[in-house]
Write a structure and sequence with these properties.
By secondary structure, this protein is α/β, with parallel strands linked by helices. It is 48% helix and 12% strand. The chain is globular. The structure holds adenosine-5'-triphosphate (ATP) and magnesium ion (MG). Magnesium ion binds next to helix 2.
């Protein structure tokens, strides 16, 4: 496996030049490996029923539609995850397949078998079919799987559970960005406020957190500005109450961003996916732009024309 050799007698400056050249090559290789690492987005709320899974699945599909790249949706709601259902996938392959395997023995080939492909180009690591199976999925195993997926995906979107278990922390730690979902009622705002306090105590930088306001009900919600004041942060995404599209989406297994990308809700998710994309992706026009990219670019142009 040697990369090069010198024969005796060795000329010191020749040896030096050779080592320099080899080091340079290693550096370039590791830099490009770093560049390939997936951007990891965790969608989270400490309160259930806030729309975490809905946002995670639509964000994952939105990213795949935008960049046509490998996007992986990882369901960490291990006791009753619904990501697979929301994409009309079976529970034939799930986290449970990795249950008996020690973390160090899990490799990329194994993940290729366990991940389920979806028509949108998203791959899904589904939650186990039975709640009790979650015990075998340790935090260490989750960290191992996420770091392997970082090598093979462009984006990882994690559908998070509503707690601070060891498994949850493995997901939150791995995330580049956490989307904290809040619905406009008091219990949800309290939950968001305690989550932000925990994030601070974990020393997550403030820019790691994004805030999403989700209108899971129709009226009498708390005012946006009051929630922002109490959380000390503005919302990056506002999702309107949209009961019909989401019920249809669950029943058909097709998320709105895929079934109706041109609807207001589809556009909202596409724009949000763009906002959460990597700086490289956002800065450059792709060689072969996808229809989703064209739609997002057009909306950005329209918005800037309006503000002028
Ligand atoms: N903006 C919205 N308008 C109307 N209904 C919504 C909206 N967002 C989410 N819902 C509905 O609220 C319910 C909960 O959403 P979802 O499953 O995404 O939340 P969750 O936080 O993942 O909940 P869980 O506690 O089950 O993990 C679903 O039936 C979903 O269709
Ligand atoms: Mg959920």
């Amino acid at each position: 496996g040697a990369d090069n050799y010198l024969s005796k007698p060795v000329n010191p400056s020749e040896l030096q030049a050779l080592v320099k050249a080899l080091l340079q090559r290693v550096l370039v290789a590791s830099e490009s490996a770093m560049k390939q690492k997936a951007r990891t987005l965790a969608v989270y709320s400490l309160r259930g029923g806030s729309g975490v899974s809905t946002i995670a699945v639509n964000l994952g599909v939105g990213l795949a539609q935008l960049w046509g790249d490998q996007t992986t949706v990882v369901d960490l709601a291990l006791t009753n995850g619904q990501s697979a259902l929301m994409l009309d996938l079976t529970l034939r392959n799930t986290w449970a397949d990795l249950g008996p395997i020690p973390p160090a023995e899990i490799d990329a080939d194994m993940l290729d078998i366990v991940l389920q492909p979806h028509a949108s180009k998203v791959r899904v690591l589904a939650a186990p079919p039975r709640p009790e199976l979650h015990e075998l999925i340790t935090g260490e195993k989750i960290s191992r799987v996420l770091s392997l997926l970082r090598e093979s995906s462009a984006y990882i979107v994690i559908d998070m559970p509503h707690d601070f278990s060891e498994q949850t922390l493995a997901g939150l730690d791995a995330a580049d960005q956490i989307v904290l979902v809040v619905s406009p009622e008091m219990a949800a705002v309290r939950a968001a406020s305690s989550a932000l306090k925990v994030f601070a105590s974990l020393q997550y930088p403030p820019e790691k957190m994004m805030l999403a306001l989700n209108w899971t009900f129709e009226r009498n919600g708390l005012a946006r500005k009051d929630i922002e004041a109490s959380l000390g942060q503005s919302f990056n995404l506002i999702m309107p109450f949209a009961p019909d599209p989401f019920v249809t989406a669950i029943n058909t297994g097709i998320p709105p961003v895929m079934s109706a990308p041109k609807s207001p809700l589809g556009a909202l998710f596409e724009d949000f996916a763009f906002m959460l994309s990597s700086a490289e992706h956002r800065a450059t026009r792709p060689a072969q732009p996808t229809p989703a990219w064209h739609r997002v670019a057009q909306r950005i142009q329209q918005r800037s024309a309006k503000s002028r």
